[in-house]
Amino acid sequence: MTTEWRRRLVVPAKHTGLVLIGFVMLYPVLWMVVSSLRPGDEIFRSPGLVLDSLQTENYVEGWNALTPSFGTYLVNSAVLVLGCIVGNLVSCSMAAYAFARLQFTGKRWWFGIMLGTIMLPIHVIIVPQYVLFSQMGWVNTFLPLIVPKILATDAFFVFLMVQFIRGLPRELDEAARIDGCGHPRIFLQIVLPLMTPALATTTIFTFIWTWNDFFSQLIYLTDPDMYTVPVALRSFVDSTVATSWGSQFAMSVVSLVPIFLAFLIGQRYLVKGIATTGGK
Amino acid sequence: MSALDELRQLRRGGVQVRKRDNRAAFWFLAPWFAGLVFITVGPVLASFALGFTKYNLIQPPRFIGLDNFARVLSDERLHNALRVTFTYVLVSVPLQLACALGVALLLDRGLRGLPLYRSAFYLPSLLGSSVAIAVLWTQVFGTEGLVNRVLGLFGVEGRGWISDPDTALSTLIVLNVWTFGSPMIIFLAGLRQIPAVYYEAAAIDGASRWSQFWRITMPLLSPILFFNLVLQIIHAFQSFTQAFVVSGGTGGPSDSTMFYTLYLYQQGFSRFDMGYASALAWFLLLIIAAFTAVNFWAAKYWVFYDD
C-alpha cells in the first residue's frame, strides 16, 4: 500500500463520492430554481434540469398574488433585518467588552448566566414576552423583534465577541490607559476597530437568522401590511387562491436570493464563526 | 474554545479578580442587563407564575393551582407530541452527526477543492430553516413530487410521503439530516487540531487506518462530538417552521408531525390558552435541561479531555 496507489485510486474515489453527495443534496434546490422558470403545468412532468424556454410568468403571478405585493414584504424584511443588525452590533459589542476586559463584582456569575441564556429556547419565554409586548401595544410593529436585539439577548454573539476581544493584545489598552483614555474611548477607538471580523460575522449571521426566522415573526406580525417574507410566503402557500407550484416556487426562490448572496459575500466569516462557537 | 469549555473552566474557578471597574461595567452591561430582566430570565420566571393560572389575554389571569400541570400529565395529544418530538430528535441528530463526521473525514487532510466542497455542503444549513425550503419539501415529497417522479423512472411506485402519517415525520428527519453542514464545519476545525505526527507515529508502529481512527481520531475529536451533540439536540427540540409549513399549521396528518413547539404554539396562539402554554413551556425547558444534564453526565464516560 504505497502513496502512489493511494493517489491513483483513493483520491478520485473520494472526489466522485463527494461530488455525488453534493449533487444529490443540492439537486432539489437547483430543480426549484429551474422549475420556477417553466410554464406552470410542466413542473410536475419534468424532474430534469433542462430548460426549454425562460418563462417569467410565475414570478409575475407570485409577486402580485397577495395584497400588498411581494415588494412590500421584501422591504419589511429588509427594515427588520437592518434594525436587528444594528441592535446586535451595538449591544453585544458593549456587553462583550465588559466581559472580556473589565473586572467587576460577580463577573464569573454573570458570565455563567450569559452563557446559559445561549441555550434558552425562545419557546420558553415567548408567552410572557407576548403578554408584555401586547400590553405595550407593540403587536404588528417590528419593536418586539428588534428591541430584544438592542438589549443584547443574542448571547451567542456576546460570546463570539468576548472570544475575539480576548485574543487582542492587552498592551494596546494599557498604552491607551496610560495616555489617559477611559473605557469608553478604549472601547470605541481601540477595541471596536480591531474587532471588525467579529462584527462582520455577527452581521452576516444576524442577517441570515432574522431573514429566515419564522416563529417570532408569525406570532408578532398578523397584519398583511406588516408581513415579512417568511410570513407572507407561508400565507401565500396556505391561501386557496394559489394552487400553482410555479408561483410558489418563484416566490420561494425570491426569498432565498438574499440568503444566497449573504452566503457568497460572507462565507469566510460564516465558516470562522461556526468553527469557533458552533452557530447553526 | 467553545461555550462548553468555558463552563467547565468556570466550574473549576479559573479567573482571578484584580482591580474592579464596577461603574464602567455597569454602563457597558446596561442593555444586556435590561434584556436579562425583560426579555430572557424575567419572562422565564413570569411563565412559571402564569403556569398556575387560566389566562386568555383578555380577562385577567385567574389562579387555578396545579390544574395546568395536571393537564400535562393527562393530555394525550401532548403525549403524542412528545413521542413525535423524541423520535425526531433521537433519530435525526445521530444521523445528522454521522453524515457530518463522515463527510468531514473525507474532506480532511488536504483534499483538493476543499473550500468548494465545504461551501456546497454548508449551504443547506443556511437554507434549511426557511419557509421556502419547507415549501420545496412539500412539493418534493408530495404525491406528484420530485421523489416520486425520480422513483417512477426506475419503475418504483411512490406514495404521498407527506400525506401519509407513517412517513410524514421521516421527511422532516431527512430535512434535518440535510443540514449536516454546520456540525461538519465544526468537525473539520476539530480534525485540523489533531497533530499529523500522531498518525505518522501510529503508521510507523503498523497501526491500520481503522485503529488509527478509533484510537487517535475519535478520542481527540470526542469533545467536539460532544459539543455538536449537545447543540444539535437543543436545536432539534426547537424545530418548528418545517413541521408548521409542511402540515399547514395542523401538525397533521393524524398529528404525525405535531412537534412539541407546534403544540405549544397552537395552545398559546391559536386557542390563546396562555396559562397552559406557559406550563408547556416550562415542561419543555425541563426536558431540554434533563437531556443536556444526561449528556454532561454521560460525557464523563466517553469524552476525552487532553488537559
Automatic annotation (TrEMBL), chain A:
GO terms for biological process: transmembrane transport. The keyword Lipid metabolism does not apply. It is found in: Cell membrane. Keywords: Cell membrane, Membrane, Transmembrane, Transmembrane helix, Transport. One of its GO terms (cellular component) is plasma membrane. The keyword Ribonucleoprotein does not apply. InterPro entries: MetI-like, MetI-like_sf. Residues 74-266 form the ABC transmembrane type-1 domain. It is a multi-pass membrane protein. SUPFAM superfamilies: MetI-like. The chain crosses the membrane at residues 16-34, 73-97, 109-133, 145-165, 186-211, 245-265. Belongs to the binding-protein-dependent transport system permease family. This is Carbohydrate ABC transporter membrane protein 2, CUT1 family. It comes from Lentzea xinjiangensis. The lineage of its organism: Bacteria, Bacillati, Actinomycetota, Actinomycetes, Pseudonocardiales.
UniProtKB/TrEMBL annotation, chain B:
The chain crosses the membrane at residues 26-52, 86-107, 119-140, 168-191, 212-237, 277-298. It is found in: Cell membrane. It is a multi-pass membrane protein. GO terms for biological process: transmembrane transport. Residues 82-295 form the ABC transmembrane type-1 domain. One of its GO terms (cellular component) is plasma membrane. InterPro entries: ABC_transporter_permease, MetI-like, MetI-like_sf. PANTHER family: ABC TRANSPORTER PERMEASE PROTEIN, ABC TRANSPORTER PERMEASE PROTEIN YESP-RELATED. Belongs to the binding-protein-dependent transport system permease family. This is Carbohydrate ABC transporter membrane protein 1, CUT1 family. It comes from Lentzea xinjiangensis. The lineage of its organism: Bacteria, Bacillati, Actinomycetota, Actinomycetes, Pseudonocardiales.
